[in-house]
Amino acid sequence: MPAYEGLTWDHPRGYKALEAAAAGLSEAKDGLTIRWDRQPLEGFESHPIDDLCRRYDIVVLDHPHIGEAVAKRCLRPLETLFAPQEIAAWGRDTIGPCLTSYRYAGSHWALPLDAATQVMALRPDLLDRDPPRTWSEVVALPDKLPVCLSLAGPHAILSLMSISVSLGTAPGAGEPGRFLPPPAVSAALEILRPLAARSLPAARGLNPIGILCRMASGDDLALCPLVYGYVNYAAPRDPKARRVAFHDAPAATATGRPGSTLGGTGIAISRRCQATPALLDHLRWLMAPEAQTGFIPTHDGQPSRRESWQDVAVNAAWGDFYKNCFRTLELAWVRPRFDGYIAFQTQASAILRDGLAEGQGAAPIADRLQDCYAAHRPPDAEL
User: Fold this and answer.
1) How far apart are CA 243 and CA 215, in angstroms?
2) Are 97 and 226 part of one and the same domain?
């Protein structure tokens, strides 16, 4: 049979393990071959999912696309491919809300291959103190310490939402159709404004990978309080690269909930795919302890299995990345997934960036964000 066509994203965390696993397959031995293409991070975050599913059998995606995918009927629900007890076991074994983030409209739509969330990234050699644990400690860091926020692309609104979660108000959790109450937007902006004002100008247009690359390659950026964690920078293979350490995202209080919006990736099967038992067995193997604690970490991947994040050898190999960020991921907040959310995320980030740059008040920013949310959220939509 012809090879399955897969699409993942163009970063070692996104493609190395999948490509290495596929390279070990053969039609004669396994009855299976898979060819993986790559797309840039920006495409992964925003490209229409139905277009990708027309061209690929297997698609690595993130959970905010699920509502769009369900509306356009372009994915196969896991319940039609795997036994209920298998799905339940993945739910028990996966860290935090990674599997449940792919459950929408009564079904699961992707396997949680990779786990990530926003955490704090810093250069330990440039920080002459313990990592800050609260937002007030972050804001109080000395002006001479070079910091930045992750505000490019969708990350501006993700940062505001995460800060609001840490302060006790989750988006969409109040009255139906309300994004965030104006007081919650105002409280989050009190943290965002001073940090945005002092953020390293050269880093303002960078996505999370760009921010972490800059932290690893120079000495002009010591801390980013909220950025998606990439284990690859915690133990760099390049001897010239500086080590970036990762810690729990800031909270409102030292013992409070870290404010963080879940990321990570799932592996989904498109409607065009004729899934054979051999393909399903390969996906099962990617989710199994052997791959999650052994194969995937050794190929620069970031596993989703809870025991992998707690594994002593895995942490020793990767600078305690997993141990240091474990609590944040367990408590991460799941974004809305309704059809239209991706467009809201993009436009809301632009609204917020403009508001910060122009010094707009909290009330007009909150009103514009609410109008944007109402324009993109279908009535009575499941979040």
Assistant:
1) 8
2) no
* Structural domain span for residue 251: 118-261+338-376
Tokens representing residue 249 in the block = 């995202």
Instruction: Give the CA count within 13 Å in the CB-facing half-sphere of 284.
Output: 14
**324 in a structural domain:** no
Q: Choose among 324, 329, 367, 276: nearest CA to 133.
A: 324
Task: Choose among 342, 369, 355, 364: nearest CA to 192.
Answer: 355
The residue type found at 364 is P
pLDDT confidence of residue 1: 63
Whole-prediction pTM: 0.95
Burial class (CB in 10 A: 0-12, 13-18, 19+), 104: buried
- Report if residue 328 sits inside a domain: no
pLDDT in tens, 93-141: 999 999 999 999 999 999 999 999 999 999 999 998 999 999 999 999 9
Cβ atoms 351, 277 nearer than 8 A: no
Q: Which residue in 145, 168, 165, 315 sits closest to 246, CA to CA? A: 315
How far is the C-alpha of 316 from the C-alpha of 324, rounded, in Å? 12
Same domain, 43 and 154: no
| 242 plus 159 within the same structural domain | yes
pLDDT, one tens digit per residue, over 180-217 is 999 999 999 999 999 999 999 999 999 999 999 999 99
